[in-house]
Amino acid sequence: MAQLKEGQRAPKFRLHDKDGKAHELEAAGAAFTVLYFYPKDSTPGCTLEAQEFSAALKDFKARGARVIGVSGGDEKSKAKFCSKYKLSVPLVSDTDFRVARSFGAFGDKKFMGRSFKGIFRKTFLLDRNGVVVRIFESVKPEGHADEVLAVIDSISRTTKRPRPAARKASGKKSAGASSPKSRPSKARASRPARKAVARKK
User: Fold this and answer.
1) What's the pLDDT at 158?
2) Which of 46, 92, 139, 152 is catalytic?
């Protein structure tokens, strides 16, 4: 499958969390969706990443963003993981890695000289229309939640900023509206002055 790129619409997904609740792409009400893929439940790096996202969950919600963690394993694995480390971030089960494959987050990996297939630590930031606005490759767990928040803030500031074209257009309009009025007034003012000089002569 071709690699998913920024600017493309994300593949549809529907996965369930530890409570059996479905999470899908078309969920309404979110300005952003943070879909982060992690290799495996209860491993050190994945635990740290999930803890940081859980701690920052209120900050994401304040920005209109939802966060979903995706990995293999079933709902029981997710329940055990969340209970053990008191995680509040929604974690969903991609048991056959179908969603990870569709996002380009599954493939050949190497660890300690051993080759195997698995989920990459990779994050996708989607807008309200499901379009990929940022891809985080080769993610480092520590500080990643803050990294994603910073990108959301940057995108939000850019979209709220007035367009330069609009300012130029309004400027031209005001200049054009005033100049026709000023020219005739000068002409009318000068004519009486010339007649007054003629009378004196």
Assistant:
1) 86
2) 46
pLDDT, position 154:
95
Q: Which domain holds residue 104?
A: 14-160
pTM, entire model: 0.77
What distance in Å separates the CA atoms of residue 147 and residue 143, rounded to the nearest whole number? 6
Model pLDDT for residues 91-140, shown as the tens digit of each residue: 999 999 999 999 999 999 887 778 889 999 999 999 999 999 999 998 99
Q: Is residue 60 part of a domain?
A: yes
- Do the domain assignments include residue 79? yes
46 catalytic? Reply is yes
- Rounded Cα gap, residues 131 and 200, in angstroms: 79
Domains in the chain: how many in total? 1
Looking up residue 28, the CATH number of its domain turns out to be 3.40.30.10
Coil, strand or helix at 70: strand
